[in-house]
Automatic annotation (TrEMBL), chain A:
Component of the integrator complex, a multiprotein complex that terminates RNA polymerase II (Pol II) transcription in the promoter-proximal region of genes. Pfam families: Beta-Casp, IntS9_C, Lactamase_B_6. Component of the Integrator complex, composed of core subunits INTS1, INTS2, INTS3, INTS4, INTS5, INTS6, INTS7, INTS8, INTS9/RC74, INTS10, INTS11/CPSF3L, INTS12, INTS13, INTS14 and INTS15. The core complex associates with protein phosphatase 2A subunits PPP2CA and PPP2R1A, to form the Integrator-PP2A (INTAC) complex. INTS9 is part of the RNA endonuclease subcomplex, composed of INTS4, INTS9, INTS11 and inositol hexakisphosphate (InsP6). Interacts with WDR73; interaction is required for the assembly of the RNA endonuclease subcomplex in the cytoplasm. Keywords: Cytoplasm, Nucleus. This is Integrator complex subunit 9. It comes from Cricetulus griseus. PANTHER family: INTEGRATOR COMPLEX SUBUNIT 9. SUPFAM superfamilies: Metallo-hydrolase/oxidoreductase. Residues 442-468 are annotated as: Disordered.
Automatic annotation (TrEMBL), chain B:
This is Integrator complex assembly factor BRAT1. One of its GO terms (biological process) is cell population proliferation. GO terms for molecular function: metal ion binding. The gene is Brat1. The keyword Ubl conjugation applies. It comes from Cricetulus griseus (Chinese hamster).
């Protein structure tokens, strides 16, 4: 989502973007915060010479190791964000969206965040599921819709947890313990985070924990340009929430308990550290603020303010950034650092359960998921294990999905269907020949009645029209059935042919009429009569062959 | 039978015989049978029947009509069995009655036979009856044995099991009568009844149906468990071939029952095992069974007293096999000598470990538990492979936390299977704790400490795993590198503690109360053991642990508060309490004593209050500085708070505290043990009159008198003991005043009387020591002690009361017949 403006505004994109409403609204908040953080500290000029490969390799690490620096872009503006968002068409879970008649696309709840989706892309005979960031844990969003993923030909699996060995429950416990430990010793806690997502769950855990841990008097600050909107938006997306939270709305109560934290003044939110915050600021306290990379945003200020005291603690909960790299510019650092990445997305055990449940014919996933992580090469459990083995792909690789499109659905117009006279060729199987015009538009195929026989041209205009209509030739009947060779030979003999010889071939038989110097090749799906320029003989033989076949 | 009961019996029999009268409570009938059994122990059942014709009337009524409820039918069957256990009474009842009840035309033909309780009563009746040769003839003639055979497969497990037991009982009775001297080696010469049973068992052993084989095996297992006469040797000689044949079948039927039988035979001391081929059979079985099945058999074999060394080695090998596989799968290169050197890991074990997660977890947990049990037993194999076992256990724990780097593909798969497996972690930690008793090389001890630290630190560890890890840690700290005559911590242990305390700090702040609780318990143990050691004190002081522990006195969870009270008390006893009194922390400013007093008087839950009293009692006993500063005030305040407490355990602890206080002032109670050699009794200090004044002022007397009338018996008992002690110590204190002499004591008596009547609001008022002593002497404390020592239902337990109750219940039921309830 964060890359959307780059796609829609810089690549000549002219299409439609489909997204759920919370995705769009929260995406807007995340982008707005990012733009705000970046624009707060405008740079008079920017350096780009260093991107020259010859210069770059002389730079210290990690700059010299950065890849494809030439493709790096400046951050987008709010205008571009708005323009990108204006191209979004909102959709709801299970809504079916027709794409040019070729496929139908449906978003399903993925259980990871408010409005987060997995997608089904299906035609009449094929079904592809695209599973991205999904969660089977009980958190705030609607639970993952697994049932709709069943019977997929292909399941594209991405967005698994980045820390497969960390259990989110354990990490939340760790987060609470370290937070309480610091605050009880008189220190402050800094939580670098995004303004939406896991923070809702963290606040809910803290809501249950602070009283029991004797932290009721400790202020919690949430500082973000979009803090207020984020906290309020979360409360109004009732239909996208888990069942428990939905039912609270009917009581009516706010679905998230952070409303009560705000009411009781335990949680305070500010757009930035300037203004009201500086008046209210009281220590020891807990601060939630961005950006989790520690490179910009209000978090930088707190790192500078608290970094020198060992009483304080910074707790990393977002798994997107390496905490060691994030901390590198702040070294030496006295404050304690705790890494509790909370990633609720699917781990490999959950994936294997999901695949057992959904049973797709084929699984397609990034290459990284098909082997254990390089740092833990023995952990055979940290990879996707399924039968048949998953097809893997690399970045920017084009992959042919392992199925062939065998069938298309074609509609028959009612008046044409009326005119059909089916003939039963086997019990339960009837056939009818159809003469029609196949009309194809928007990947939809319709058989329409053929035009009436063309009238003799009366005017130029008419003539032009009739030229467009395909010629309808008189149709020969279709033949079916097989020719029993022995009976066929007997019939030939009856009709005066003698000196008949039958040879077996790989595909059928050859009947040789030596006297007439004629050869009849009988194969499974064709019969050839080869004779020297004797049309009468050929027609006689043809008619004898046709006696054994059904016509319709 | 006492005359009162004799009088009640006819009415009761009438009630039982009346189908309209429902005996609502089964337990009454059970108690009634128990009572009859007790009566029969001393009296002749024949006389009893003759003296109480109502009993015979009841029996014949049931025999004729069977219109009583199934539970009464069952009762009657069992009662007749009890009567007929005596041979003369058996003769008296034989004929119509016994055959009518137990014969083929008896209970078997009743409609009520469908009820399992009736079938069970029939079996139990026969079981009681089968005590003499006449009974054997009866059983043989009546066809009962065939019915018992059929009942072995009864759908009710209770009936089926009882039927098997009865067969064993009959077999033993028959053989007992038949073989007085040396065993009859020819089975053909055995009594007919015994032959019949043995033939049936043998046939069942040959059966293709597993349930029948199981029944036969169960009968044999019970026989060898119960009967230790020489004839059992002959029996085994005859039946061991068909038993051995069972091992030839694939799959082996009724594996568990088979193992039970082999172990039961092996435990019997009558057989000559070498001759009867039992050891070979055991050895074969051990090698044929799957690792999971063989585990219990191997443990049972190792527990046997007389067992060839070779077999013991094989059995121990079975137990070690899974751990050997683990070591093999994870050890780099040849490495140190492992378990079971030279033998490749059994492919069966490897298959079991790798087949599925549940099989792997089940096998490992079972193996660890068996080895843990074995290590504690006197039969523990020697030499005990301490080093490889410790290595394997540490490896298992590391497989669970994902920190092991396996060298083989099997190791990789184990890593995936065991990762985060709580069951295996718990079992491994338990065994690890037990292994602390052995001697281990230093580098391995350090590995143990490392894996314990990792487990304690890991956010993935569940509360139960943490608790086990704390327990194991404590045991290793106690046992690691013990230097003789020194309880100090080793330098390695101290280093370990340095790393442990930061983790403990975090655990004390856990959002999970179970974790906070076990961390506090662990801390209390640590302080109790090493609180006096300078290095330990320094390490503890340099951490925040004492402050955090003190803060948990206000935890919302009562269990945690209770543990925090214990920890704070222990810290304070050792002079280790949190010292940093910060102005923000009001807790640190006031003394711990006041905090605990506050908890005692205000905490809504019982656990923290009980914990406070335990701490206070310990403080008083040990002469804690805060207590001896003003002991009288301390005791008075505690007693005041306790006397109002609703929790009986708190009141009981209050009495304990009072007793410690008295002992300190008056000396130990004198022992009245008749077996001790009378040492010259040290003259206990006679209580100073002022001390008695103090007791009155506290008011300890009032508290004790009040507790004497406590509705909870243990409290009253304790108060009684306390007052007896006081009376003993004050015998010589004052003149021969009698109660009621002074107006003061008269008023106290009056108040006590009102207390007895339930008005306990009124205080005793200011008391003089003399008056107190006078009352103390006037109370029949010994009598009270005797009364309290009996269980609270001793009056209701008498047979007379039972009969009355049964009659009364029926009466009430009758009255309430029309009541919709």
């Amino acid at each position: 989502m964060m890359a959307l403006p780059y796609i829609t505004e810089h690549t000549g994109f002219t299409g439609t973007v489909y997204a759920t409403e919370p995705t769009m609204q929260i995406g807007r908040l995340l982008m707005e915060e990012l733009v705000n953080f970046i624009e707060r500290v405008p740079k008079a000029q920017s350096a780009s010479l260093w991107k020259n490969k010859d210069i770059q390799r002389l730079l210290p690490s990690p700059l010299k190791d950065a890849v494809e620096v030439s493709t790096w872009r400046r951050c987008y503006t709010m205008q571009e964000v708005n323009s990108a968002l204006s191209k979004i068409q909102l959709v709801g879970y299970s809504q079916k969206i027709e794409l040019f008649g070729a496929v139908q696309v449906t978003p399903l709840s993925s259980g990871y965040a408010l409005g987060s989706s997995n997608w089904i892309i299906q035609s009449h005979y094929e079904k592809v599921s695209y599973v991205s960031g999904s969660s089977l844990l009980t958190t705030h969003p609607q639970p993952m819709d697994q049932a709709s993923l069943k019977n997929s030909d292909v399941l594209v699996l991405t967005g698994l947890t980045q820390i497969p060995t960390a259990n989110p429950d354990g990490m939340v416990g760790e987060f609470c313990s370290n937070l309480a430990l610091t605050v009880r010793n008189g220190g402050n806690v800094l939580v670098p985070c995004y303004p939406s997502g896991v923070i809702y769950d963290l606040l809910e855990c803290l809501y249950q924990y602070i009283d029991s841990a004797g932290l009721s008097n400790i202020p919690f600050y949430f500082i973000s340009p979009v803090a207020n909107s984020s906290l309020e938006f979360s409360q109004i997306f009732a239909e996208w929430l888990c069942h428990n939270k939905q039912s609270k709305v009917y009581l009516p109560e706010p679905p998230f308990p952070h409303a009560e934290l705000i009411q009781t003044n335990k949680l305070k939110h500010y757009p930035s550290i300037h203004g009201d915050f500086s008046n209210d600021f009281r220590q020891p306290c807990v601060v939630f603020t961005g950006h989790p990379s520690l490179r910009f945003g209000d978090v930088v200020h707190f790192m500078e303010l608290w970094g020198k005291s060992s009483l304080n603690t910074v707790i990393f909960t977002e798994p997107d950034f390496s905490y060691l790299e994030a901390l590198a510019p702040y070294q030496p650092l006295a404050m304690k650092c705790i890494y509790c990445p909370i990633d609720t997305r699917l781990n490999f055990i959950q994936v294997s359960k999901l695949l057992k449940e959904v049973q797709p014919l084929h699984v397609v996933c990034p290459e990284q998921y098909t082997q254990p992580p390089p740092a833990q090469s023995h952990r055979m459990d940290l990879m996707i294990d399924c039968q048949p083995p998953a097809m893997s792909y690399r970045r920017a690789e084009v992959l042919a999905l392992p199925f062939k499109r065998r069938y298309e659905k074609i509609e028959i117009m009612p008046e044409l269907a009326d005119s059909l006279v089916p003939m039963e060729i086997k019990p339960g199987i009837s056939l009818a020949t159809v003469s029609a015009v196949l009309h194809t538009k928007d990947n939809k195929h319709v058989l329409q009645p053929p035009p009436r026989p063309t009238q003799p041209p009366s005017s130029k205009k008419r003539k032009r029209v009739s030229e467009d209509v395909p010629d309808c030739k008189v149709l020969k009947p279709l033949l079916s059935g097989s020719i029993p060779v022995e009976q066929f030979v007997q019939t030939l003999e009856k009709h005066g042919f003698s000196d008949i010889k039958v040879e077996d071939t790989a595909k059928g038989h050859i009947v040789l009429l030596q006297e007439a110097e004629t050869l009849i090749q009988i194969e499974e799906d064709s019969t050839h009569i080869i004779c020297d320029n004797d049309e009468t003989l050929r027609v006689r033989l043809r008619d004898l062959v046709l006696r054994f076949l059904q016509k319709f | 039978m006492d005359p009162e009961c004799s009088k009640l019996l006819p009415a009761l029999c009438a009630v039982l015989a009346d189908p309209r009268q429902l005996v609502a409570d089964d337990t009454c009938l059970e108690k009634l049978l128990d009572w009859f059994k007790t009566v029969m122990e001393t009296e002749s059942s024949l006389h009893l029947l003759q003296d109480h014709p109502c009993l015979m009337e009841l029996l014949s009524h049931v025999l004729k009509t069977q219109d009583v409820s199934p539970r009464v039918l069952s009762f009657v069957l069992r009662l007749v069995g009890i009567f007929a256990a005596q041979e003369d009474c058996f003769q008296y009842l034989q004929g119509e009655l016994l055959l009518g009840l137990f014969g083929e035309t008896g209970a078997l033909s009743w409609t009520a036979w469908n009820m399992p309780s009736v079938r069970s009563g029939w079996i139990q009746g026969l079981c009681s009856l089968a005590h003499h040769p006449s009974a054997l003839h009866f059983l043989a003639d009546s066809g009962a044995v065939d019915t018992i055979f059929a009942l072995q497969g009864d759908p009710s497990l209770f009936v089926a099991s009882a039927a098997s037991q009865l067969l064993v009982h009959i077999l033993a009775l028959a053989m007992q009568g038949g073989a007085s001297g040396s065993p009859i080696s020819e089975a053909a010469a055995w009594p007919i009844c015994a032959q019949k049973i043995v033939n049936h068992v043998e046939e069942s052993l040959h059966s293709k149906a597993t349930p029948q084989v199981t029944q036969a095996l169960n009968v044999l297992t019970t026989t060898f468990g119960r009967c230790h006469s020489p004839w059992t040797g002959v029996l085994w000689g005859r039946l061991s071939p068909p038993v051995a044949c069972l091992f030839e079948r694939d799959p082996i039927p009724a594996v568990h029952s088979l193992m039970d039988l082999l172990l039961s035979v092996a435990r019997s001391h009558v057989l000559n095992f070498a001759a009867c081929g039992l050891w070979e059979m055991l050895a074969q079985t051990l090698s044929r069974l799957s690792p999971t099945q063989a585990g219990p058999l191997a443990l049972g074999t190792l527990k046997l007293q007389h067992c060839p060394q070779e077999l013991r080695t094989q059995a121990f090998g079975v137990l070690l096999q899974p751990l050997a596989c683990i070591l093999k799968a994870t050890t780099q290169a040849p490495g140190p000598p492992g378990l079971l050197d030279g033998t490749a890991g059994s492919s069966l074990t490897v298959d079991a470990l790798l087949s599925s997660k549940s099989a792997c977890v089940g096998l490992l947990c079972q193996t660890l538990a068996h080895l843990e049990e074995l290590q504690m037993l006197p039969q523990c194999p020697c030499p005990w492979p301490q080093v490889p076992l410790l290595g394997a256990t540490v490896t298992i724990l590391r497989l669970c936390d994902g920190s092991v780097d396996p060298s083989s593909s099997m190791g990789g798969r184990l890593c995936g299977t065991l990762g985060g497996c709580v069951r295996v972690q718990r079992a491994a930690l338990d065994f690890l704790g037990t292994l602390s008793q052995g001697t281990s090389p230093l580098e391995l001890v350090l590995e143990v400490f490392a894996v314990l630290l990792k487990t304690l630190e890991s956010p993935e560890s569940s509360p139960t795993v943490l608790k086990k890890a704390f327990q194991a840690t404590l045991r290793w700290l106690q046992n690691s590198h013990k230097t003789p005559n020194c309880s100090d911590l080793s330098p390695d242990a101290l280093l370990f503690l340095g790393e442990l305390f930061p983790i403990l700090q975090k655990r004390l702040c856990s959002p999970c109360w179970e974790v906070r609780d076990s961390a506090l318990e662990f801390l209390t143990h640590l302080i109790r053991h090493w609180g006096g050691q300078a290095d330990f004190r320094e390490a503890l002081h340099s951490s925040e642990v004492p402050t955090l522990a003190r803060q948990l006195l206000q935890d919302p969870e009562s269990y945690v508060r209770a543990s925090a009270v214990g920890t704070a008390g222990q810290l304070s006893s050792r002079g280790l309490q949190a010292t940093s009194a910060s102005p923000e922390n009001p807790l640190a400013q006031q003394g711990l004593l006041m905090d605990l007093m506050h908890i005692l008087s205000t905490d809504s839950e019982g656990f923290p209050r009980r914990a406070v009293l335990r701490v206070f009692t310990e403080w008083l006993r040990d002469g804690h500085a805060d207590v001896i500063r003003d002991t009288e005030w301390f005791v008075a305040t505690v007693l005041q708070a306790v006397s109002r407490d609703l929790d009986w355990e708190v009141r009981m602890q209050g009495l304990e505290l009072a007793q410690v206080f008295l002992i300190q002032a008056m000396g130990q109670p004198s022992l009245h043990c008749p077996y001790t050699v009378g040492l010259p009794e040290a003259t206990s200090p006679r209580p100073h009159p002022e001390f008695l004044q103090t007791l009155c002022r506290l008011p300890l007397f009032e508290f004790a008198f009040c507790a004497l009338l406590d509705c909870d018996r243990p409290v009253a008992q304790k108060a009684c003991d306390l007052l007896l002690f006081l009376r003993d110590k004050t015998t010589h204190c004052s003149g021969p005043q009698e109660a009621g002499d002074s107006p003061n004591s008269a008023s106290v008596e009056a108040v006590l009387q009102r207390w007895r009547e339930g008005e306990q609001g009124q205080p005793l008022g200011d008391l003089e020591p003399e008056a107190m002593l006078a009352i103390l002497r006037s109370l029949d404390l010994e009598g009270l002690q005797g009364k309290l020592a009996k269980s609270s239902d001793h009056v209701e337990k008498s047979p007379q009361s039972l009969l009355q109750d049964m009659l009364a219940t029926v009466g009430i039921l009758e009255e309430n017949e029309a009541d919709c309830y």
